[in-house]
Every structure is written in structure tokens, then in C-alpha cells.
Amino acid sequence: MDFYLSNIQEVEKQEVPIKGSKGAFIQWLITKDKGASYAVRKFSVLPNGIIPMHIHKYQETVVITKGKCKVCVSDKIYEMQEGDYIFIDGNVKHAFINYNENLEFFCIINYAEDMSIQVLDDECKGNP
Fold first, then answer.
1. What are phi and psi for residue 34, nearest 5 degrees?
2. Are 46 and 117 in contact (CB under 8 A)?
3. Which of 20, 61, 65, 79 could connect to 52 by a Cys-Cys bridge, CB 3.0–4.6 Å?
């Protein structure tokens, strides 16, 4: 396929399939099925929603486009808001915790041989 054109509103919104996630939804915009060697996903997280601490082998870049959240990466905590972005390498534990408004972000990932996600017992604690 030489190109692919669509609209975000036309892409199915699914619950984030990470155990312990709450109020978090994902849309797969660009995937290997469209001929890409990477994936572009849009996440929408409701107020007080969470994507719990987890780890995976693929790398990701997250770009916040609406709202603000707490991001735990390794053993550090950061506050991110609209316009901020973060690169998270493979095998680095991380979590996203939304505050009291809708959060939206894009997440670009590479395709690793193992795309599984492991949920961790670690909690994202403390203040940024």
C-alpha cells in the first residue's frame, strides 16, 4: 500500500487491554496491516483513569495532546501536560495516571518480536 488516509472518528475505540486499567481507551490508527513498520495509537483516558505499571519489549513515544497526567517511569514520577512528550525504551516499567479532566495522547511504537505486556505489582506513588 502506497498510502492510507482515514479519520480518527472512524477508528474503533477499545478498552485498553492491560489488566487494572480504568477509564482508558485505545484506537489503533496506523499498523503493520496498513504496511507500516511501526504503529500509531491514540489513547483517551477519562478523569481519574489509569493505565497501571507495566512493561513490554517495544519502545514507545507518547505525545500529550489534551489534559495532564502523572507518568511513572522506572522509579521516577513526572507530570506531563499538553505539548509534552516522552520516549520510553523497551523493558522500562511505566504507568499513566490521569487527573480530573479528559486526557488524550498519541503513542508511537515499534513492532518487537514479542508484543506481550506484563502488568507489574508496583504502584505509581508520590507526587511529581
1. -95, 0
2. no
3. 20
Give the pLDDT confidence score for residue 127 in this predicted structure.
Answer: 66
Longest dimension (CA), the chain: 47
CA distance 78 to 125: 11
pLDDT digits (tens, 9 = 90+) for 21-48: 999 999 999 999 999 999 999 999 999 9
- Let me know: does 26 contact 43? Beta carbons within 8 Å: yes
Cell of 9: 472518528
| Cβ atoms 78, 70 nearer than 8 A | yes
Give the whole-angstrom CA distance, residue 121 versus residue 53. Answer: 7
Dihedral angle, C-alpha 25, 17, 111, 73, nearest 10 °? 80
Question: What is d(CA 27, CA 25) in angstroms, rounded to the nearest whole number?
Answer: 7
Q: What is the pTM of this model?
A: 0.94
How far apart are the C-alpha atoms of 58 and 128, rounded to whole Å?
A: 25
Average pLDDT over residues 106-117: 96
